[in-house]
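Comment thread on ticket #2218

A.B. wrote:
> Attaching the input chain for the structure job we discussed in standup.
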Amino acid sequence: ALAIYETLLTRTHSHSAQSAIYVHIGECEWTLEHQAEALNAFMKGAELDPSNTSAHLHLAQLFLAGGAPDRALVFADIVLAHDPKDLDAMSAEAGAYAFLGNLPAATTKFQEVLKRDPGRADAAVTLSQLYSASGKTAQARTVLQSAVASAPNSAPIQLALAHFEEEEGHSVDAEKSYRRAVALQDDADTNLRLAQFLERSARIPEAEAVLRKVDTMSPAKPYALADFQIVSGKTTDASKHYLDLLLKHEKNPADKDAATITARAIEAKLAQSSRSEEHTSELQSHHDL
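C.D. wrote:
> Ran it. Output below, let me know if you need it in another format.
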């Protein structure tokens, strides 16, 4: 898609049309996790057509995600000047206020968004977090439960509710919501959240089984299980897992993931050696006694 949009750009001379194409290019770059390229594309889109609110909205969201709430506010305000009822811009503005520590303004803005769209995930999740941080757990739960009722098929809201219940010590309710989220959105990220919950609950075999599933869903980064093994002390298993992955990547020397896996394999080997030295030292201490 990115290649097609770039080709279209060379054949288009209207500034408004070029602006729209740059927005699509920015969306592709952002999906590919090329943040700098995405920023550049959205900036060009906004410069070519200042009335292109989509470009400004993406800039607001990008700057907010990048930890620059002041700049996010600038672009969100541009969108709201064109349409004061734009929910995406209102959510970006509220998120920027929250980031800046202006919790009353953030709370009010998120409440406004949820009045118009009770099932909006980003507003519900962030508002519930603001309430929780202020010790208003009952209000936090109400926000999430209302969002679930309005958007029962939203995995992000189920995950937020699951995390909230887990923090409140309600592990049974938390697990139900984690599993509902997976049933709604059976992808790598959602399964990873379930696996992490199982790990925190000391249900290691179950966590490892889910992580194996995560690896099959992430062929580009199939090392979630090995990463878990290294932090849980199973360095020998982790090392073997990384080396097996490296053998598969040997056939493609240009594969960028090979460097990442190599670094992880070295880390596992070092951890394995360290644990071996500690074990030897312990044996020697017992022998000396």
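A.B. wrote:
> Thanks. Noting for the ticket: Residues 257-288 form the longest helix (32 residues).
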